[in-house]
Amino acid sequence: MVNKVGKGHRLVMENREQIALTGVQKVQSFDPKEIVLETELGILSIKGDQLGIKTLNLEEGMVDLQGHVSALIYHRNTSEGSRQGFLNRIFR
């Protein structure tokens, strides 16, 4: 998977409250407890409290998030590409 502008995937987190990401291809889902992104390196789940998207520019593959981050999870199997697929793998 290659981002449209080919800048690669980068994640910078400050004080577990702000995250700047590049290489984001799609926002699969988001709510105040979890944001699921499709990145150049696969599916990334960001879990926490009061999570929100400050800036979203998918043409450039950039996303800025805020809130209290408790976990960052890269999922191994990205071929299914959906949150439903991830949940199915957990409960098998």
Can you tell me about this structure?
The chain has one helix at residues 83-90, and strands at residues 10-14, 18-22, 24-31, 34-39, 42-57, 62-74. It is mainly beta. It has one domain: Immunoglobulin-like (Sandwich). Strands 1-2-6-5-4-3 form a six-stranded antiparallel sheet, with no helix packed on it. The longest helix has 8 residues, at 83-90. The N and C termini lie far apart (28 Å).
- Contiguous runs where pLDDT drops below 50 for at least 5 residues: 1-5
- Main β-sheet, spatial strand arrangement: 1-2-6-5-4-3
What's the Cα radius of gyration? 13 Å
Order of helices and strands: EEEEEEH
CATH topology name, in short, is Immunoglobulin-like
Structural class: mainly beta
The overall number of domains is 1
What is the CATH architecture assignment?
Answer: Sandwich
SS element count, helices: 1
Q: Which descriptor suits the 3D outline?
A: globular
Strand portion, in percent? over 45%
Text of the CATH class: Mainly Beta
Give the proportion of residues in helices.
under 10%
Query: How is the biggest beta sheet arranged?
Result: 6 strands, antiparallel
Distance between the first and last residues' Cα: 28 Å
